[in-house]
Amino acid sequence: MSIQLDALADLMKGVSAEELKASFFHHLKYSLGLFKAEVSTHDQYMALALAIRDRMVDRMMATEARYEAAGAKRLYYLSMEFLMGRSMGNNLINLGIYDQARAMAETLGLDLEEIRNSEVDAALGNGGLGRLAACFLDSLATLGMPGYGYGINYEYGLFKQEIANGYQEEKPDHWTEKGCPWMLERTNEACMIPLYGYIEHATDRSGEYNPMWMGWKILVGIPHDMPIVGYGGNTVNYLRLYSARSSENFDMRIFNEGDYLKAVEEKMTSETVSKVLYPKDSFEAGRELRLVQEYFFTACALRDITRRVEAKGLSFNALPDMVAIQLNDTHPSLAIAELMRFLVDEKGVPWESAWDITTRTFAFTNHTLLPEAMEKWPQPLFERVLPRHLQILDEINRRFLKKVALRWPNDPVRLQQMSLFEEGPHKQVRMAHLAMAGSHSINGVAELHTHLLKTKVVNDFYNMWPSRFNNKTNGVTQRRWLLKTNPRLADLITSRIGDAWITNLDHLRELEPYAEDAEFRQAFMATKLENKTKLAALINRRARVTVDPSSLFDIHAKRIHEYKRQLLNVMHIIHQYLCVVEDGEEPEVARTYVFAGKAAPGYWAAKQYIKLINNLARVINNDRRTRGLVKVAFIPNYRVSLAEKLIPAADLSEQISTAGMEASGTGNMKFAMNGALTIGTLDGANIEIREEVGKDNIIIFGLRAEQIENHRANQSYDPWDTYRRDVRVRRVVDTFNTDLFCPQEPGLFRWIFQTLLDQGDEYFHLADLPSYIEAQEKASRLFADQDTWARKAVLNVARIGKFSSDRTIRQYADEIWNIRGYETLSPGEEQGKG
């Protein structure tokens, strides 16, 4: 039965606290089957979440009807990660029923904040890549645009991080253990996905080569939809995540023979595909599982997308006019080969037509400048898992290199550099090359990043197709990262300039005059102090460190990686510590250094940095000479809900990556949006942040990307020169050759001394340390003058409007996807717009 638009319009009305209470009790009784007078906080969370979800489903149905009536072109965003965090607070705010929920809870003697805090973070991502995807989904819905995410419904996240004797320990992150009330399972839309098998070489009736993919194993993809509500509640799109199931629960013959465990082995093996985010790929089975994961979710997505097109009875020539597919980094690039296989093998579309359809449908976002992050697969593994797709890649490559040879005749080196296959003892498939060859748009995520892609990283491809390359500087959603995360600051802003900034962040510019308003600055800093006081309590609980909220909160929160240079931060702290204990110098302002972040399980150096930070904290925090002057804390298990506590409390935001190595960063945007000053290199989006907030309101230091590139090209950087020339550098580095920070584990950090001096200091720590020390001294001087600091902090908030993901999505929509927003209209108006 079709649902009429005018009937759906009734569902868009607001909900009262009484209606929400009735729905809450309904779900306690009928969804959870609870009859007790007292229920647990988790039960309260589940019942309230289901009550909220009811409203979201109503609006999701209305949204779908609106898109259908308008014949809307749709965007499908394919990503291995969607770091959603907690959903309840965000959904209440975007639906506009937060106050009703709080009132309902109060009438029942419940604490809404306690209920919200019982929600477990959805562990569907790892870092910036996944959080960006989550921000984009929020913006698409808020802008009324038909945009949907596709990914994997991981049962386990990356890992829960615990700290034991200073070392990172990885524990299972079974985030779905108690169920996820936001998910809607769609078993009726399951997808059948072939894997493995072999190619049977044959010819068709006309004698043309007609390969047949035979003997495959089938995986079943079960979609689960998570509704994504835009601000105001008018539009609800969804994130579709696939769980893997076996096509056969067990082999009945084996079961009847009495081997019960073996009978269910196939089911258990199949379901590992959606078990865990990023299985460790340092061994063959882990690499194979990652490849299977990437094919599984992209193949599921394409079956779903093409099924919708077929249901309309249209030719696949119309696919690019109906659909835009964005590849979020290289992980989903197998979708290009899969669409070609589908069109050529299953639908009989001629190759050239299929390739034209494919390239006009796909667009590719590159997120890295690190060569090791440009994904590659060993050809033998690829052939075993996806034999037909390897044939397709061979043909794509043959035709592609033919065009390269026409463009640059007699240039075999260029052919090798651009080939989809990397030759050598172990031939590999280059997934970034496939993504670029098969997409009509290739974008970087910050101006510097895109420039380096064009001129350095994939210069050959830029020269081949300059019109395909474009920049889309990243952004973050202010609904999550200011309105929800920092409600007191949000209220302060709204009290002065109104609430238009919530859907158009450029309105924050209206806050600029208030930087000169003493009363506003005082209120602004009082808000910051309240957030710091809350964080101080959390640090005491989680890290067992007592800190002073009035001290300068210097926060470094991101994935632990050598290029992100947590080590550089540590070296400055060591410098400050030595100045206190050896030179008797008291710092200009008291400092609290906060670290948070996970190291990949197989990344030994990064895990050693975590140990170093924790040992450093133990030494400094227990030294009477630094009492009241310097504190260090590492907060374990960094995730979205922890970031929401750290970011509003930061005075100083550490964005100190080696210049030319960070694609963009989004943490830098979130911290500035919440009134932190950035200390950073001219890297990633830091450059554009400086352009927006003004060079006097950001603290920049260190070598620029072109200087580092020149040093590398000319092999002109010798860390020993800096070590010998600067006594500050020498004194800090020498501590790693002692047991000052590892008295119980002698020699533990000597490898750092060797890495910095004898192995070339690949990430230019020593080259940048002197200017970093001076930049930190500047930060202390500024913070000592609270009035000046407040002006700069206010201006950071006022001038951050460019870095809304709404702006980013509008650019993608206008310049790549050719989609638009659809407001809530009456049925007649909607038909007229179509």
UniProtKB/TrEMBL annotation:
<keyword id="KW-0021">Allosteric enzyme</keyword>
<keyword id="KW-0328">Glycosyltransferase</keyword>
<keyword id="KW-0808">Transferase</keyword>
<dbReference type="GO" id="GO:0008184">
    <property type="term" value="F:glycogen phosphorylase activity"/>
</dbReference>
<dbReference type="GO" id="GO:0005737">
    <property type="term" value="C:cytoplasm"/>
</dbReference>
<comment type="function">
    <text>Allosteric enzyme that catalyzes the rate-limiting step in glycogen catabolism, the phosphorolytic cleavage of glycogen to produce glucose-1-phosphate, and plays a central role in maintaining cellular and organismal glucose homeostasis.</text>
</comment>
<dbReference type="InterPro" id="IPR011833">
    <property type="entry name" value="Glycg_phsphrylas"/>
</dbReference>
<dbReference type="GO" id="GO:0005980">
    <property type="term" value="P:glycogen catabolic process"/>
</dbReference>
<dbReference type="GO" id="GO:0030170">
    <property type="term" value="F:pyridoxal phosphate binding"/>
</dbReference>
<feature type="modified residue" description="N6-(pyridoxal phosphate)lysine">
    <location>
        <position position="670"/>
    </location>
</feature>
<protein>
    <recommendedName>
        <fullName>Alpha-1,4 glucan phosphorylase</fullName>
        <ecNumber>2.4.1.1</ecNumber>
    </recommendedName>
</protein>
<comment type="similarity">
    <text>Belongs to the glycogen phosphorylase family.</text>
</comment>
<dbReference type="InterPro" id="IPR035090">
    <property type="entry name" value="Pyridoxal_P_attach_site"/>
</dbReference>
<dbReference type="Pfam" id="PF00343">
    <property type="entry name" value="Phosphorylase"/>
</dbReference>
<keyword id="KW-0663">Pyridoxal phosphate</keyword>
<keyword id="KW-0119">Carbohydrate metabolism</keyword>
<comment type="function">
    <text>Phosphorylase is an important allosteric enzyme in carbohydrate metabolism. Enzymes from different sources differ in their regulatory mechanisms and in their natural substrates. However, all known phosphorylases share catalytic and structural properties.</text>
</comment>
<dbReference type="InterPro" id="IPR000811">
    <property type="entry name" value="Glyco_trans_35"/>
</dbReference>
<keyword id="KW-0963">Cytoplasm</keyword>
